[in-house]
């Protein structure tokens, strides 16, 4: 059983809960997720089964799209709706759509974020949320992330009320904290804010229409149709360039051989080596030997 199961993660479960449940349902230990989704976040969570666990890091590193909601007027310890309120400043003025859109435009592109204290980022070998639960504030490393698209949803002209809400869509790189993005939007509007809901709508090319719910997985298992749940390894590598290779070259690639760099090699990026439309390895330029490419990972050696 080798492949990618695009799961629609329900709210109320951690990503690890999903892996644990699928191990029991599919009766296999080799199951891994592709990037943590907070328990209260629903959405696309590609799950790697069997040999597909070898490419989990590539799916994790691929772009993601979310639909979320910002609530103005209150901030929380966790930057979402499930933390304790730390600041409250009711909105006393009308906020126009144009004003919000201008802020979203400024936050599109490369931005710097500081991870929230309630996050899984490690500092000195310990996750930030462990410090947060002990009430310890530590210095957090900032990171640069890429916001590819940030746009408003729904058709409104003005935000009114003491705690107005609005929905947005964001396509972003790995490592982006959408909670922190929501807080920053509020800050630039002049108010405390938090992310009041979030759904991941796309991950590594998989969308909601590709996904299976746990109820559907159970049904397929009961009907002995598990293979129909799985997508091939190549579908998780769709964001990487591909190179189709010959039978002769494939034998060398399967054994992890270093090769002469092809004339049409795309540059200093990783490339999927395909044989008969199946990915068998991932290669890159050798860092020390010009004109040579080397394997990063061999996926199939049979």
TrEMBL record:
It catalyses: uridine(55) in tRNA = pseudouridine(55) in tRNA. Keywords: Isomerase, tRNA processing. One of its GO terms (biological process) is mRNA pseudouridine synthesis. The keyword tRNA processing applies. Residues 179-236 form the tRNA pseudouridylate synthase B C-terminal domain. The keyword tRNA processing applies. Its EC number is 5.4.99.25. It comes from the Bacteria. The active site is at residue 38. CDD domains: PseudoU_synth_EcTruB. One of its GO terms (molecular function) is tRNA pseudouridine(55) synthase activity. InterPro entries: PsdUridine_synth_cat_dom_sf (IPR020103), PsdUridine_synth_N (IPR002501), tRNA_psdUridine_synth_TruB (IPR014780), TruB_C (IPR032819). Residues 23-178 form the Pseudouridine synthase II N-terminal domain. Belongs to the pseudouridine synthase TruB family. Type 1 subfamily. Responsible for synthesis of pseudouridine from uracil-55 in the psi GC loop of transfer RNAs. HAMAP family: TruB_bact. This is tRNA pseudouridine synthase B.
